[in-house]
Write a structure and sequence with these properties.
- Helix 3 packs parallel to helix 4, helix 4 runs parallel beside helix 5 and helix 9 packs parallel to helix 14.
- It is elongated and about 85 Å long.
- Strands 8, 9, 10, 11, 12, 15, 16, 17 and 19 form a 9-stranded mixed β-sheet that branches. Strands 1, 2, 3, 4, 5, 6 and 7 form a 7-stranded mixed β-sheet that branches.
- With 498 residues, it is α/β, with parallel strands linked by helices.
- The protein contains 14 helices and 21 strands.
- Helix 12 links the parallel strand 16 and strand 17.
- The protein folds into 2 domains: 161 residues, Leucine Aminopeptidase, subunit E, domain 1, CATH 3.40.220.10; 316 residues, 3-Layer(aba) Sandwich (Aminopeptidase).
- Zinc ion binds next to strand 11.
- Manganese (II) ion binds next to loops.
Length: 498
């Protein structure tokens, strides 16, 4: 989908489809009024009959509207109020994307993307609109013998803004939204690929390819190098797998000042989680190909940030391995030594995410990070607590947590904070090592984060548990691209401050 932006009114525009907003089922927005005037009241007439629902996101497609130069007019309901909420704006854009994909227009003009949204500005509107429209064109077909022929919507979309003074900000927002959707598409694709293709070696190759196209510095450490570093915890997860583990490091250096402290993103890269010797039940185990979605979100965020050219330094670290049973696999009760020197009694080999993350988090210390954010499909308990709406957030720094919560709201990709109180640390006790890899009963999402907290004492750190948000199950099974919008918005905020 190609995007452009223009200021003005729509009545003289030649286009396959012009989408205009309607408030409370009857009231025309300025662009709709301009079309209506050219059409001598044709739209008013139709709306008077009550054919458009007042609910935000309802649509009505009209053909051969007199007095206009376009093939179709799409009326889009913006709800009842003059100002939209974030949710209704996103809903209206989403419904427009759906209607455009179902219709045959080769190009389209959207005239309500600049409609006032409470507390937001022209840049936000254009960023959200471009992101949602571009993201709606993603299709998975890498492993299908025939490509999906379903329409993906118009090849060209123009955002029409009413005020010339908004044009520069909106153009900037639109470019950000496109970059964001590009990052999300990469995250979705890596997530959706099956584990027999998307192995740790494949992820390492993709990192190199991303490094080439986006000018990132990429290093890949192999098993021998990880052994030298003392990453006994990470390697214990890889022990049962025939696939060699990889530690992938990607550096984006955009800061004006050389040596500016980087934001470090650490993504869980379990390319398949069988549970290991503590094996998982068969039902829905295929979905454990998504256990590398944290890693995929690091790839996608770096791609988005590099495309935008943000003036920041960002480092991505991805520990990648399978978690398999086998003759060499780690057994419950085994004790390993992490890179930090702390010993871990592995009581459940299915609590493997924290075992690979802890060594990656210790490795992160060498970059003198401004802050570290890890992203992981870490606990089933997080799905029980929060469902699929927000990601779980825990942090050792309240300002960092508040910043992430705010960026989540802004991007529409929200997080919700859970407490990381010291009291929970008492739930991690081992008779034989410094700590076990699972907590006593209850608060599984928090005790997993408490485990990680024991490796993040040297910097500001936040943890995002994306077990509920990274992919959808059921008929619409597929990766969501989250939390790339949240992470990218966080970095946009940091770039603005820099
Ligand atoms: N990858 C899983 C968590 C998960 C499960 C995410 C289902 C999304 C859907 C993780 O490695 C895991 O198995 N966690 C265990 C931890 C437990 C053994 C303490 C869990 O949540 O059951
Ligand atoms: Mn597991
Ligand atoms: Zn896992």
């Amino acid at each position: 989908m190609e995007f452009s932006i223009k200021a003005g009114t729509p009545e003289k525009l030649r286009s396959g489809c012009i989408a205009v907003g309607v408030i409370d089922a009857r009231k025309l927005t300025p662009a709709a009024a301009a079309l209506d005037k050219a059409a001598k009241g044709y739209l008013t007439e139709i709306l008077r009959r009550g054919d458009l629902d007042a609910k935000a996101g309802a649509t009505l497609a009209l053909h051969n509207v007199p007095g206009t130069a376009c093939e179709r007019v799409l009326l889009v309901s913006l709800g009842k109020e003059a100002e939209l909420s974030d949710k209704d704006f996103r809903g209206a854009i989403g419904a427009t994307a759906k209607a455009l994909a179902a219709g045959g227009a080769k190009d389209a003009v959207i005239c309500f993307a600049d409609h006032p949204v409470t507390g937001r500005d022209a840049r936000w509107n254009a960023r959200q609109a471009a992101m949602l429209l571009a993201d709606s064109t993603y299709r998975y077909d890498a492993t299908k013998s025939k490509k999906d022929e379903n329409r993906r919507g118009p090849a060209k979309v123009t955002l029409l803004v009413g005020e010339k003074t908004d044009l520069a900000a909106a153009r900037n927002g639109m470019a950000q939204g496109q970059a964001l959707a590009g990052g999300m598409a990469l995250t979705k694709e890596l997530g959706n690929l099956p584990a027999n293709i998307c192995t740790p070696t494949y992820l390492a190759q993709q990192a190199k390819a991303l490094g080439k196209s986006q000018k990132l510095k990429v290093d890949v450490l192999d098993r021998a190098q990880m052994e030298k570093l003392g990453m006994g915890s990470l390697l214990s997860v890889a022990a049962g797998s025939a696939q060699p583990p990889k530690l992938i490091i990607m550096k984006y250096e955009g800061a004006a000042k050389k040596g500016a402290r980087p934001v470090v993103l650490v993504g869980k890269g379990i390319t398949f989680d069988t549970g290991g010797i503590s094996i998982k039940p068969a039902a829905e185990m295929d979905e454990m190909k998504y256990d590398m979605c944290g890693a995929a979100s690091v790839f996608g965020t770096l791609k988005a940030v590099a495309t935008m050219g943000l003036p920041l330094n960002v480092i991505g670290i991805v520990p990648a391995t399978e978690n398999m049973p086998g003759g060499r696999a780690t057994k419950p009760g085994d004790i390993v030594t992490s890179m930090s020197g702390q010993t871990i009694e592995i009581l459940n080999t299915d609590a493997e995410g924290r075992l690979i993350l802890c060594d990656a988090l210790t490795y992160a210390e060498r970059f003198n990070p401004d802050c570290v954010i890890d992203i992981a499909t870490l606990t089933g308990a997080c799905i029980i607590a929060l469902g699929a709406i927000p990601s779980g957030l825990m942090a050792n720094d309240d300002d960092l947590a508040a910043e992430l919560l705010a960026r989540g709201q802004e991007s529409g990709d929200r997080a919700w904070q859970l407490p990381l109180w010291d009291d929970y640390q008492d739930m991690l006790k081992s008779n034989f090592a410094d700590m076990p890899n699972i907590g006593s009963k209850g608060a599984g999402t928090i005790t997993a984060a408490c485990f990680l907290a024991r490796f993040t004492g040297k910097y500001k750190w936040a943890h995002l548990d994306i077990a509920g948000t990274a992919w959808k199950s059921g008929g619409e099974k597929g990766a969501t691209g989250r939390p790339v919008p949240l992470l990218t918005q966080f970095l946009l905020g940091r770039a603005k401050a820099a």
